[in-house]
Amino acid sequence: MAFESLTDKLSAAFKKLRSKGRLTERDIKESMREIKLALLEADVNFKVVRDFVAKVSERAVGTEVLEGLNPAQQIVKIVNEEICALMGSEGEKLNISPKPPTVVMFVGLQGAGKTTNIAKLASHLKKTASKRPLLVACDIYRPAAIKQLEVLGSQLDIPVFKAEGKKPVEIARLAIEHANKHGNDVVFLDTAGRLHIDEELMNELKAIKAEVSPTEIMLVIDAMSGQDAVSTASAFDEALGIDSVFLTKLDGDARGGAALSVRAVTGKPIKFVGVGEKLDGIEQFHPDRIASRILGMGDVLSLIEKAEQAFDEKQAIELEKKIRENSFTLTDFREQMKQMQNMGSMTDLIKMIPGIDHKALSGVKIDERALLRTDAIISSMTPYERDNPNQINFSRKKRIAAGSGVSVEEVNRLLKQFEASRKMMKQMTSGAMGKQMSRKMRRAQKGGGKGFPFGF
User: Which residues contact 154 (CB under 8 A, 6 or more apart)?
Assistant: First the structure.
């Protein structure tokens, strides 16, 4: 999982500090040594590590920390702030041209995931910003590159422009003319990559840049390549002049070296990250949220955003009403389970919740198939049973178990889980938290925004 190794090592260093109460300069020096080793093992650039530790140390030996009531928490706060600063402090959005179309030129080495992630970003803008993207097949060298882009475009209902027999520079120019004629306001150029940076590759990319003057040149690099990713970013920037970075496979990077080094070394912001193989596996890069994840403090804002994207506003408002009236049924419960699946892996979602001991969860296997069994059990019930689960006696349970291919014990477990969920959600809607959420629901209802679901 993303940053898992780094998170474990930093958590161990902070745990030692918390056990000491008051701190001495020697304690801080020792903890800085552990933090330095943790960052180096995470494959963070050496110069970046050296400068980072120097800044944290300088702030940590001040009187505010050494004489504070909770110095260990102060040091965690300093580390958090400096990690944010290292990655750019605030998330940056894609540059949008005031005169359409916006032209985004994707560049990178072969195997970094350009073609897949250019489609992800196009789909993301289509859904979140109501853009009308056009995918352009400028990679005429890699076998099946054009076909891959066409398949992705078909799956996402996004048009793909290609021009057989033309050179990449001409394809790019013709694509922009096509976009102007057909109302496509964002053009994504999927350029060719190589196994290594060479003069031929760069000359072609420079020619495309000179011909179409892209609004943004976005470099796609593999997060799991560590310091190699930083070297690649530096080389592309020096030769071509990049504007931003798209970091792929972040969910598989247990170390985190690339994410922590790229901005500091190149000065170029990471704007988006790829998380997972699904075509909706993309997130805007927020340094503060990433820093929170690295320090094991969860990421509640990203969790909320995932929930708002997965849950329908009208359904959320209707759900609140049902919970308040105590008419929440097993049919509603099943619908909530299905929508939770749309938010992604349960393991990843749990790690976004603040206060969870993520280390204690390591090795714990969450059975994603349990949701399928739940669906099968509820599907084997009659409409009456779904609306009145308290009327399900033993003979009904036997029939339901036989129909869904599970044991009676599993049917009992589901019914207990449902009742516990119903009670918990009833408490949420009746307390202070429920009042805050209700206000948000009412604002959403009036302003057309999305409401936040209760049963997620």
Answer: none
Which of 144-153 are b and which e, b meaning 16 or more Cβ less than 10 Å from the residue's Cβ?
Answer: ebbebbbebb
- List 102's β-bridge partners, or say none: 186
Looking at residue 68, its amino acid is G
- pLDDT tens for the chain, 456 residues long, are 567 788 888 888 888 877 776 777 888 888 899 999 999 988 888 999 999 999 998 888 765 555 555 777 788 888 888 988 988 878 899 999 999 999 999 999 988 889 999 999 999 999 999 999 999 999 999 888 999 999 999 999 999 999 988 999 999 999 999 999 999 999 999 999 888 888 888 999 999 999 999 999 999 998 888 788 888 999 999 999 999 999 998 877 667 788 888 888 889 999 999 987 888 889 899 888 888 878 766 544 555 555 555 555 566 666 666 666 667 788 888 877 776 666 555 555 555 554 445 555 555 455 557 778 888 999 999 999 998 998 999 999 999 999 999 999 999 999 998 888 777 766 655 554 444 444 544 444 444 443 333 332
What is the CB-side half-sphere exposure of residue 48 using CA atoms within 13 A? 25
The answer to whether 209 and 173 have CB atoms below 8 angstroms apart is no
Q: What are the tokens at 109? A: 């080495």
Cross-strand pairs, 250: none
Please state the separation of Cα 232 from the chain's center in Å. 23
Residue with tokens 């247990």: 254
Find, among 41, 42, 87, 81, the residue nearest to 58 by Cα. Answer: 81
Distance CA 252, CA 224 (A): 7
| Adjacent-strand bridge partners of 136 | 161, 189
Helix 432-447 and helix 313-324: axis angle, to 10°? 140
Q: Could you tell me which of 454, 393, 451 has the C-alpha nearest to residue 422?
A: 454
Can you tell me which residue has the tokens 């475009």?
153
377-401 b/e (C-beta count within 10 Å ≥ 16 → b): bbebbeeebbeebeebeeebbebbb
The C-alpha atoms of residue 163 and residue 169 are separated, in whole angstroms, by 11
List of residues 6+ apart from 212 with CB closer than 8 A? 103, 105, 172, 173, 176, 189
Listed in sequence order, the residues at least 6 apart from 168 whose beta carbon sits closer than 8 Å to its beta carbon are 138, 139, 140, 191, 192, 204, 207, 208
Q: How far is CA 114 from CA 95, 163, 166, in A?
A: 19, 19, 21
Query: Any alpha helices (H) in 311-369, and if so which ranges?
Result: 313-324, 330-341, 346-350, 358-361
Question: Which tokens is 25 given?
Answer: 């300069």
